[in-house]
Specification:
CATH class: Alpha Beta
Shape: globular
Bound molecules: nickel (II) ion
Largest sheet: 5 strands, antiparallel
Strand order of the largest sheet: 1-2-3-6-7
Number of domains: 1
Distance between the termini: 35 Å
Order of helices and strands: HEEEEEEEHH
Length: 177
């Protein structure tokens, strides 16, 4: 197992749609293990393959993230391959949403309250399940990554422009020093 490097905005590959996984082989399973380890190491609740530089439709998440009993020591990884949202309803304000690929920024994001997800598990078995609240936000956020969408694409253009300006200024300063 290995920790993977997380790619951050404005890296272009983050805004590119990812390809469907055709064969779940050893390489994919190893990637999933590494993604899970990386996610827990960074204290994230979800991580999508494009965030580690692999544009394939894979995500991992912490299935106990919304559990008040979860103290972060369980480190149980759940993985979804080729996940898609097949039904969505209700509205939910995801407060202070953040992303390991969007540094030093959080914002409220309007999400669906309930989503129904279809995917394959690590053995290629078809899954279908419904989640609401925080787990539904995680699904929407991570599946967005597979379509090249970041949460900052779902906030106001003004807020996004301000963040973009700040990041480019920081990059320029880093280059100059
Ligand atoms: Ni993210």
């Amino acid at each position: 197992m290995a920790l993977l490097k997380i790619i951050t905005y404005p890296e272009k590959s983050l805004s590119q749609p990812s390809a469907k996984v055709e064969t779940i082989d050893e390489e994919i399973r190893e990637l999933i293990q590494d993604m899970g380890e990386t996610m827990f190491h960074e204290s994230g609740v979800g991580l999508a393959a494009p965030q580690v530089g692999v544009n394939k439709r894979i995500l991992v998440y912490n299935p106990t993230a919304a559990d008040p009993e979860d103290d972060g020591t369980k480190r149980e990884i759940a993985a979804l391959i080729n996940p898609e949202i097949i039904e969505a309803s209700g509205s939910y304000l995801s407060e202070d949403e953040g992303c390991l690929s969007v540094l030093d920024f959080r914002a409220d994001v309007k999400r669906y309250e309930t989503v129904r997800v279809r995917a394959q598990d690590m053995d290629g078995k078809e899954l279908e399940f419904e989640v609401r609240g925080l787990p539904a936000v995680i699904m929407q956020h991570e599946i967005d990554h597979l379509d090249g969408i970041l949460f900052i694409d779902r906030i106001s253009a003004l807020k996004r422009a301000m963040y973009r300006k700040r990041i480019f200024k920081q990059m320029k300063e880093a280059q100059a020093s």
